[in-house]
Amino acid sequence: MGALKYTKLPDVKHMDTCFGSGVQSEPLKPVTFWIHGGALTVGSIYQQMDNGSILATNNVVFVSANYRLIEKTHLFGGDRDQITIFGASAGKWSVSAHLLSPLSKDLFKRAIIQSGVLMFNKDRPVLGTVDGLAKAKEMVRRVGCDPYDYKWLDCLQTVKDPELLLTPTPGDSAYVFSYPVFGTKLLPLLPQTAFARTKIWTNIAKNIKPHDVWPQLWDKSVIRVKDLNPNDMSLILNNLYESTCDGIWKHYFSSSIDVNTSSGSVRGQTLHVLNRSIHQFLNIPYAEPPLGPLRFAPPVPLKTPKKDIIDGTVHGKSCIQTIDPMFEQMMGKLTISEDCLNLGIWTETTGNDIPSGQLKPVMFYIHGGALSIGSLYQNLYNGSVLPINDVVVVSVNYRLGQLGFLYGADETAPGNAGFYDQLMALKWVRENIHSFGGDRDQITIFGESAGSLSVSAHLLSPQSKGLFKKAIVQSGALMFNKDRPILGTVDGLAKAKETARRVGCDPYDYKWLDCLRAIEDPNLMIELTEGGEKFVPTFPVYGTEFLPILPQKAFENGDYNSDVDIMAGVAKDEGPLLAIMQYPQQLMGQKFDLVAFKQLVSHLSDFFHNIDADKVVAHYLKDIDTGKPEAMVRAFGNLYGDLVMICPTYLFAKRWALKSDNPVYFYRFNFQSNMFASFGCDDNTICHGADVTYVFGEPVRTATAFREIDYDFSLDVMKIWTNFAKNIKPHDVWPQLWDKSVIRVKDLNPNDMSLILDNPYEMRGQTLHVLNRKIHQFLNIPYAETPLGPLRFAPPVPLKAPKKDIIDGTVHGMSCIQTIDPMFEQLMGKITISEDCLTLGIWTETTGTDIPSGQLKPVMFYIHGGALSIGSLYQKMHNGSILPVHDVVVVSVNYRLGQLGFLYGADETAPGNAGFYDQLLALKWVRENIHLFGGDRDQITIFGASAGAWSVSAHLLSPLSKGLFKRAIVQSGALMFNKGRPVLGTVDGLAKAKETARRVGCDPYDYKWLDCLRAIEDPNLILDTADAGEAFIIVFPVFGTEFLPILPQKAFESGDYNSDVAIMAGVAKDEGPMLAIMQYPQQLVKHKFDLDAFKQLVSNVSDIFHNIDADKVVAHYLQRIDTGKPEAMVRAFGNLYGDLVMICPTYLFAKRWAIKSEKPVYFYRFNFQTNLFASFGCDDNTICHGADGAYVFGEPVRTATAFREIDYDFSLDVMKMWTNFAKNIKAHDVWPQLWDKSVIRVKDLNPNDMSLILDNPYESTCDSIWSQYF
Question: Carries keyword Transcription regulation (predicted)?
Fold first, then answer.
């Protein structure tokens, strides 16, 4: 062997390549790409056992590398198109990962898997995103980085010694397995789910046989395994894994499902769709293959059931047709064959013992495609979403083109064989659908375009009588000229003979049909298109057994299936797209003038017969500038749409309504997805086929590719279609087509169901009379798009377009989704909840666009409380009408609550803290618009109580809120707890979100688990479930995120907070007692609360708030307490809870602000309350959480008769202090700053002594017992 010729490669590291000499001249060789093992933890390509030099002697190039070499292999004599990847141990895991991953598509042709794959439990991976993130954060902590810092990855990347990252966790063995993370972009789905959804790509070469005596694994449904042993290389084993992998472990690994039918046993798969498990069965044969003598003949039922299990997890064959690259790219690749008579079923229920009363309506779909193209396997017709509306969906393949509709004038070729196929499939469904949970007596047939033509054929045909109860006719009906069909038996026979002549058969030979049946290549039967056409439309033959008479005559004499309810409709603009597809050369390839227009109408008349060309031309060119080709093309499109689609569908339905006693509903589809823009269909041109996308839920299946309005409209459309199938009336507001001799058509457009505004500032408010002042109130002002569909959990999106109609600001808007507690409802007023809740309210004394800037007033922006779980600006205690009498403008905002507002999904579409982003967008809206309400955008004070105070503190900390406000009032609450760990970090937040997904039936290990959560129709299901007795669940925001990147203590230390804001903060004197009882009613009220129970509850609290020194805290709060008195113990726990959750966070937050910032900080202790609190066990000595709220919003002033005089006066004082701070920072003459020359000074707010200043009331608690915690 001569010297090896090496080619130097720049920048190639960590690779090993073996090849023979002369690589520049010899043919390129197959490449074997080796991935070494080692538990994904150890190993190297340089280990002796991985040396590939011997393999390279077998005419292959051997590569072992740490990165992809597909672009370089040719330099070593390797063929980049013949790459086989292989590996053992962890290397085989890698091979299986590439087989599964969409990112590895087309990079190799073959794979060898040695000893294992990445497929374990079907329900949960070894490592999902939550466990993976937790593992990463643990490593962060181990090497000295802060796992709660938003930039923790930046810190990891600065670790100089990479071996530190490999240090095992204490307790690990010396040899640690590493596992890849599922639910990621590289591995988006569990393998079982990937196989079930056919997302795995399957183009591994099938023509490479490794050994002469080696059958394939799946050999006619028999498992065959090659035994590799030099003592007997011919041994083939029959499933040696039958009792283990296919037995005891089957349900651990697999989610397949088998159903027995007359065709044989069918194996399907389970899909997870919108929180429901939908079983999908594809490739079910319903007839013998129409080959040989059965070509052109009506189908024959299967003679015997299939012996082997029918694999319904894979696509079957589609019928012979023209394959157009554009359609293929848009709708998916098909494999075509004459052996194509199969159907698919999607259902939620299977079994032979389903009670008849629980069987569901069946929707039988017939695809479109001009009777020439199409397949149930095109992704547009995926039936997996419709069954969530409690129906069973069936879709059918049928013969197309001349193979499906050739008329041979005898019983072996009676014409319309494709319709007979559909008929046979319908009969199969009636025989078998009960095994799939379907009711044979509640079948609705539906179809679009040629599928709709097919539906109308079954409505007319005596052969189909009694097989279905309802029909939906979508854009097409077999009703054209009243005197002559497009194709009768004479024209049909002539066309068939012309086909015979074209393929070389003698049309004058008695056995011309036998000759046609003997043609081996069925593609020769496909009609040839003229230049530019995608396909040739096929028309059925009238005057035959299936279609004996014209529709008009059938209606006249009653020879049709009149006992069927009908829903029918068309797209608003059927013709433009169809015309260009059918006549591309005439309409696009040359100047389309008046002469060309008339010529094309004449051509149409030759085809559709008896058109009064002059009359039609005059009508469609009325008011058209015939010198403009684009206007002429549009006019012809309108003509063509009316002739071919709109008028046949409408008139068919109209005659049905006139002649039949059954209901008929008609729609005009007036909306479409952006997909149609590429076909020249804009918002004013709703093209043919616009409805199909929505009927089959494509915007729901692939939500990220569509707009929010598409998602919502698709849910509506599917509900309309399935409602019709279930209970006749598709929609509450939809009269029948023939309504007391008046034609009534439903316009289907989602915009008709909502108000779209021209001017976001054009709104109607109302004037209130308050304390001898006129205050203008504006409610229900939207500041963002509705957070539905893809926007659920996402940061809010500003309104895309102004509303066209006046916003009614005189009524309450919707409140955000939350638990409705009767006690709170009685106390605070009823609210109506919805996800469409992102609105705000404004109270002002002045409005207008011409207010001089010097007369603009300070703005007070209020954020309501409620544990980030409940609350609304529309609750009466948050009514902002009184505060403006003190010369401010008041704004109050709704924001998303609970998991809908704070779920953390670990990506930009669900970054956590969406409720805070809502508040942020509302703040930006205020800065943009508040001048119209007399407010000064540069004098905004944000304020809030309880969770509203948490929100205020979040904006004080967040870099995203910088510069949006000048002052802040923090009333009882701040997001500052343990200094070492947040209540909720990203790991805990993601785990909580995944648990929510699991609870509502979504797969938490699916890469698209968020899409599933977004598809949940009832948003109330996403609410956290409260334990017995609790009114609601406290929700905590997520730290380590973009909005809250670092803990407050670290922010104060580093200066990374909005320090240029003046603060007023405070707490009620006794924050805890009422809060503790509301949060822990079972422990504190219903059971004996002794010392053990006290300690247990402190331990529970530490589990939430982390790192509490329980012994130290218990000892402090129980000193001088008689532990034998439950009521004393309850009060002691209340004091502890109040200090931990409200008082110390608020006080220490304000104290650190005062020490670190140069801005003024004022602090109060609220020491008075209304009689209202007595019902909560709050007496004069227990000033409870929320005591300040009634006074701040002037409730004793608004409803004076319900309060004492002292309440009335004190409320006026409190409102003056709050507004004074907003106007000029100084709230009261006798109120020193909190940090006054290193002395803590707190103002006591009590009407009995407004001059009292307290010297640090928190010295023994917040500044002592809790100091190390915070």
Answer: no
**What are 46's two structure tokens?**
């340089």
Q: Comparing 459 with 96, which gets the higher pLDDT? A: 459
Find tokens 């690994």 and name the residue: 253
The secondary structure of the chain in percent helix, strand, coil, rounded to multiples of 5, reads: 35, 15, 45
SS3 861: strand
- Distance separating alpha carbons of residues 639 and 629, to the nearest angstrom: 15
CA 268/CA 253 separation, integer angstroms: 15
Contacts of 1055 (CB under 8 A, 6+ apart): 1156
Taking only the tens place, the pLDDT of each residue in 1213-1239 is 999 999 999 999 888 988 999 997 779
What confidence score (pLDDT) does residue 203 get? Answer: 32
pLDDT digits (tens, 9 = 90+) for 133-186: 888 888 888 888 888 888 888 888 888 877 666 665 555 544 456 778 888 888
Give me the numbers of helices (H) and strands (E) for the chain, helices first please: 37, 40
Q: What is the pLDDT of residue 286?
A: 98
Q: Which of 324-328, 556-560, 915-919, 1028-1032 has the lowest mean pLDDT?
A: 1028-1032
d(CA 1102, CA 1097): 9
Is residue 754 over pLDDT 50? no
DSSP 75: G
Sign of CA dihedral 304, 309, 312, 316: negative
Strands 773-782 and 766-770: antiparallel
Are residues 1253 and 1234 in contact, defined by beta-carbon separation less than 8 angstroms?
no
Say yes or no to pLDDT of 552 above 50: yes
Rounded to whole angstroms, the Cα distance separating 93 from 1155 reads 56
For the chain, give the percent of residues with pLDDT over 90.
60
Residue 957 CB contacts under 8 Å (≥ 6 apart), including other chains: 975, 1044, 1048, 1051, 1057, 1058
Length, in residues, of the chain: 1270
How far is it, in rounded angstroms, from Cα 240 to Cα 752? 63
Q: 864: closest CA among 854, 853, 876?
A: 876
pLDDT digits (tens, 9 = 90+) for 186-212: 888 877 777 654 433 333 323 456 767
Tokens of 107: 């990079």
Q: Which of 145, 89, 149 is nearest to 114 (CA)?
A: 89
Q: What is the mean pLDDT of residues 798-808?
A: 82
CA 978 to each of CA 499, 904, 1258: distance values in angstroms, whole numbers, following the listed order: 83, 21, 18
Quickly list DSSP for 182-213: SSSSSS-S-HHHHHHTT-S-----S---S-SS
How many C-beta atoms lie closer than 10 Å to residue 153's C-beta? 12
How far is it, in rounded angstroms, from Cα 503 to Cα 516?
A: 8
Q: List residues with catalytic annotation.
A: 449, 574, 688
Tokens 């922010």, residue located: 1051
Distance CA 488, CA 470 (A): 28
Cα 722 from Cα 724, distance rounded (Å): 5
Q: How far apart are CA 932 and CA 187, in angstroms?
A: 52
Range in 63-72, 383-392, 426-435 the model is least confident about: 63-72
**All domains of the chain in start order, with CATH:** 15-114 (3.40.50.1820), 271-525 (3.40.50.1820), 562-752 (3.40.50.1820), 763-1022 (3.40.50.1820), 1059-1265 (3.40.50.1820)
Query: CB count, 10 Å around CB of 840?
Result: 27
1247 vs 1228: CA distance, rounded Å: 13
Distance CA 294, CA 288 (A): 9
Average per-residue pLDDT for the chain: 87
Selection from 36-45, 658-667, 689-698, 952-961 with the highest mean pLDDT: 952-961
CA distances from 91 to 64, 112, 126, 345, 486 (A): 11, 10, 17, 39, 63
